[in-house]
Design brief:
The structure is a single chain. The chain is of the alpha+beta class. The strands form four sheets. A three-stranded antiparallel β-sheet has the order 3-4-5. The chain has a three-stranded antiparallel β-sheet with strand order 8-9-10, sandwiched between helices. The longest helix is centred in the middle third of the chain and has 10 residues. The chain is globular.
Length: 232
């Protein structure tokens, strides 16, 4: 599957209030419902799997849709975009019903980016424990200082788990290497949202962080704000 460009395409102001209609995932029915979004609300398109993608809204919300990345990306940015077109249906692409794709072998080992039944995302193998590592689908809603990040992770109760932690320097680099598959990271390089805390201190007043635009690992004063993505 072609991966999304790391640079979000800017929507022209001439687009006005044109709309895009897509089928979004409905966890209750385990199917998809047609929904309409103003095109100006969409920041970028992100790949999830071979047969699904996600709209990333300017609010930061990430919404899975029943259409491959290439098809959805083309629909949003094509020059002759029309507001009265049909709802985009996965069946128009694959000939199959619009429903989440089940793995062919339930015993198959997950790959980075795979969504687990509990809603977490498989991030890869932790270099520290040599065990599978899972992450939340999105960053913490706010950037925070180093000590605040550790406290946030300790108190986090998400997806039925309470054993979250800020990734170590080595674990954070795994998240960076698998960032496209995992999704939801700020890869703009902006400070502080595009810089992420690790749990690895550097003497008393500093700690290691990583910039997700290029993977640069740096020493950051603990009083600075950075983004946080928890793992377990």
């Amino acid at each position: 599957m072609t991966q999304p460009s790391p640079i979000a395409k800017e929507l022209s102001s001439s687009h006005g209030e044109r709309l895009i209609r897509v089928l979004i995932a409905n966890p209750k029915s385990k199917g998809f419902n047609p929904t309409t979004f103003p095109e100006t609300e969409i920041e970028r398109v992100m790949g999830i799997s071979e047969d699904r993608s996600a709209l990333v809204l300017r609010s930061g919300a990430e919404i899975p849709v029943a259409l491959p990345y290439e098809e959805l990306e083309q629909k949003i940015y094509e020059r002759d975009f029309r507001t009265d077109g049909p709802v985009l249906d996965l069946r128009n692409v694959t000939g199959e019903a619009a429903k989440p794709k089940a793995p062919a072998n339930t015993n198959q080992a997950p790959t980075p980016g795979d969504k687990m039944p509990d809603g977490t995302v498989f991030a890869g193998i932790s270099p520290d424990t040599n065990k599978p590592m899972y992450t939340t689908p999105a960053d913490a809603s706010l950037t925070m200082k180093f000590n605040e990040a550790q406290e946030y992770a300790t108190k986090l109760d998400a997806h039925g788990h309470k054993d979250w932690h800020v990734p170590t320097k080595a674990e954070l680099n795994v998240l960076f290497n698998n960032r496209a598959a995992i999704g939801g990271f700020d890869i703009s390089g902006s400070n502080p949202a595009g810089w992420y805390w690790s749990a690895s201190p550097y003497y008393d007043w500093n700690a290691w962080g990583q910039q997700f635009s290029d993977g640069y690992q740096y020493i950051n004063p603990k009083v600075n704000h950075s983004a946080v993505r928890c793992v377990r």
